[in-house]
């Protein structure tokens, strides 16, 4: 009795190889899509955090204007002088300000006038710097004589979307 052993061919066929390559390619493409979305989300988060800081900074500058006027004004009623500086800054006419102190407020009814530029690591309206992509507008609501509500809006464009963030705060006449 003779036993013949037949050896089977254990190599991949062309179809099996193509299927394996296509599965591998799809998994790599899926990974790359997730990675690119993560990078995009990180960029958005960075811009939103920067915009939040810039909006808060806008309110801080206006608060500084109030305190400087109240503490160091030598003419008239300091609170009324402060209100007068902000009189033209309403929701129809956003304002910007020029740094360094004393902070001069200017009306920028065209948002491009309130563009922020990067100069020496800081953000300001001096167009000799690099365009940061952010626009900051500040306005005030003066409904009560001893109170002003300040709004600071920062907007930016990223990808195909337009985004903005607005902070507000009530400022009071704290001197009698």
Write a compact overview of the structure shown:
By secondary structure, the chain is α+β, with helices and mostly antiparallel strands. The protein has two helices and seven strands; from the N terminus they run ααβββββββ. It has helices at about 15-70, 80-85; strands spanning about 95-100, 105, 115-120, 120-125, 130-145, 145-160, 160-170.
Number of helices: 2
Class from helix and strand fractions = alpha+beta
How helix-rich are the residues, as a percent range? 25-40%
Q: Distance between termini? A: 120 Å
How are the strands of the biggest sheet laid out side by side? 4-3-5-6-7
Strand content is 25-35%
Number of E-state strands: 7
pLDDT under 50 segments (min length 5)?
Answer: none
Measured on Cα atoms, how large is the radius of gyration? 30 Å
Task: State mean pLDDT (0 to 100 scale).
Answer: 86
Globally, the shape reads rod-shaped
Order of helices and strands: HHEEEEEEE
- Biggest sheet, open or closed, and with what strands and sense? 5 strands, antiparallel
